[in-house]
Amino acid sequence: MREKLMGGFASRFSEVFKRLELSSTLEIANRASDVEVERVLAQGRANSLNEFAALVSPAAEKHLETLCRLSQRLTQQHFGKTIRMFAPLYLSNECVNICKYCGFSRHNDIPRITLDIEKVEREAALLAEQGFRSILLVAGEHPKYVSNGYVEEVVRRLAETFPSIALELGPLETPAYQPLTQAGCEALIVYQETYHEATYRSLHTAGPKKHFHWRMDTAERAYEAGFRRLGIGALFGLHEWREEALALAAHTQHLLKTCWKAQINISLPRMRPAAGEFEQVDFLQDHHFVQLITALRLFAPHAGITLSTREPSTLRDGLIPIGVTSMSAGSSTEPGGYSSFDETSFTPTREQEGEQFHIADERPPSEVARAIRKMGYEPVWKDFDQSLLAAV
Fold first, then answer.
1. How many CB atoms sit inside 10 A of residue 170's CB?
2. How far apart are the C-alpha atoms of 355 and 363, rounded to whole Å?
3. Cα 246 to the chain's mean position, in Å?
């Protein structure tokens, strides 16, 4: 029987996390044998966190071909041969937090920009012209965005054009999320950044983002407010990747049980150049990246997996058939950045000094869509309409 978050029957993930013995599970990953890996691969699924640990183990690296084949089969079984397309629209880079790795961190000397609603509509219109009907609204963490109704009004204005609107902004309590879902927002994305608490506290030295466990429960608060899609992820490059992967898998497993009416989506962003002088601790190498994506698919076959423009074009194209279900394209990470794009190629024409990070795949959306079709998959620009909710 599924656990119910509504009504308080299940513990928040922050409580579950405190009871996890991640060090022991990490030891299982580090010591897994070929026999243990092959046993999980023979099942075609990872049915426990310990079995997931075997799939991200050093011993599993030699089985990448089998992992990819199984992951491809499961992904096509549950999602078909489709890739959901979306674009981020940055509303503001103002932020009250100090996060040592982020370009928006308040200690960085960058131009601070907050778009007025008319400018947001112009930026959104440029994305609509490219074919997008799914959009992710992003902002630095600042209380004024919600307290003055700004984000709510942005959602209300854009809902007429974009059936699918997602948010990525500072975590809120459930009552503060409710006006946003009522305005037409259907998805909430929040990254834990790192699940290693000591690392988290050393990187977040000021601002509300310092609260490690409160951030961890954001997806569940959003679920109670009515969001139908929930996205989580870790920023790989802040701590040892296998330990992050185990915590992320445990978080995914918890949300699949407790927030079962929502689609759960996993993002695996890797560090990119940004303002500031942060040096990443442990970079997730490409072959480990493939191993992680495929292991997550075998552990959570119903969860979506998102690939952003942080990754280079050749790698993104190669990952299309092995487990990814959604991709961003033609992205700008600076508020107002799309207005400076070339009208024909839809690519940046200038350095974006106010960006959160510098993207790696600068291809226009149409070129990304062609690459998806070339791989035998179909780019999906719109897969949801608000009118469907009337029948629920």
1. 20
2. 17
3. 16
For the chain, domain boundaries: 13-384
CA separation, residue 307 to residues 191, 210, 317, 319, 329 (Å): 14, 27, 10, 9, 10
Residue 266: alpha-carbon gap to chain centroid? 5
**Residue 30 neighbours by CB distance under 10 Å:** 13
Residue type, 163: P
Among 315, 295, 336, smallest CA distance to 67 is for 295
Distance CA 169, CA 95 (A): 10
**Side-chain half-sphere of 385: how many Cα atoms within 13 Å?**
4
Cα 205 from Cα 215, distance rounded (Å): 15
Q: 193 pairs with which residues across the strands? A: 234
Residue 87 pairs in a beta bridge with 135
For the chain, percent helix, then strand, then coil, each to nearest 5? 45, 15, 40
| pTM for the full predicted model | 0.93
139 residue type, one letter: A
| Residue 305 identity | I
pLDDT of the chain, 392 residues: tens digit per residue: 345 554 444 799 999 999 999 999 999 999 999 999 999 999 999 999 999 999 999 999 999 999 999 999 999 999 999 999 999 999 998 989 988 888 888 888 888 889 999 999 999 999 999 999 999 999 988 877 666 899 999 999 999 999 999 999 999 999 999 999 999 999 999 999 999 999 999 999 998 999 999 999 999 999 999 999 999 999 999 999 999 999 999 999 999 999 999 999 999 999 876 555 566 666 799 999 999 999 999 999 999 999 999 999 999 999 999 999 999 999 999 999 999 898 888 988 777 777 787 889 999 999 999 999 999 999 999 875 555 555 44
Q: In whole angstroms, what is the distance from residue 93 CA to residue 141 CA?
A: 8
CATH no. of 13-384 = 3.20.20.70
CA 145 – CA 172 distance, rounded (Å)? 11
